[in-house]
Amino acid sequence: MSAIVRYRWLRAAALVACATVATAAWAGPVERYRTGPQFCPRDRAPTAPRLSEKDIDARAIALLPDLCKPSVFVTGCDAEPELINEQWRVYVQQYKLRDGTPDHGGLDHSYVILDPVGNCIANIPGTPLGALH
């Protein structure tokens, strides 16, 4: 194999390697669970009273203090719970008030899965949607 062919082959291999790394970095973070008692507490007895939908909303938002903290870009969070197979699945999404109307565009979201008494089963961060418009 001549030196020119070998150089071209190495250059092509290097370009493929760089493209692979750049694609993986551009794809963003891999979804992961938030674990530990600070993110996903299981501090309620199984015999505790079942929580209502309103209580589940408050519990889910309380588990995401950094997500729902007011800032220049975020006014607060909305929670949309659904009870499926004796588990509350709560979609929590940031919003910014614009002319008195919540605008969710370009903001972050997260999922919290709770048992009927409010113990955390999973706390799954969402992937940010991008910059504000």
* Largest sheet features: 5 strands, antiparallel
Please trace the helix and strand order, writing H or E for each element. HHHEEEEE
Strand content: 25-35%
Q: Supply Rg.
A: 22 Å
Mass-distribution shape: elongated
**Subunit organisation of the chains:** single chain
Mean pLDDT: 82
- Tell how many strands the DSSP assignment holds: 5
Instruction: Measure the end-to-end span.
Output: 55 Å
Count of DSSP H/I helices: 3
* Overall number of structural domains: 2
Structure at a glance:
It is built from 3 helices and 5 strands, in the order αααβββββ. It has helices at residues 3-26, 53-62, 65-68, and strands spanning 76-84, 87-98, 101-103, 109-114, 120-125.
Give structural notes.
This protein is an alpha+beta fold. The protein has two domains: 1-30; 32-125. It is 29% helix and 27% strand. The chain starts with a helix and ends in an 8-residue tail after the last strand. 16% of the residues are buried.
Features:
single chain; 133 residues; alpha+beta; 3 helices; 5 strands
Write the layout of secondary structure elements.
Layout: H1 3-26, H2 53-62, H3 65-68, E1 76-84, E2 87-98, E3 101-103, E4 109-114, E5 120-125
Antiparallel strand pairs: 1-2, 2-3, 2-4, 4-5
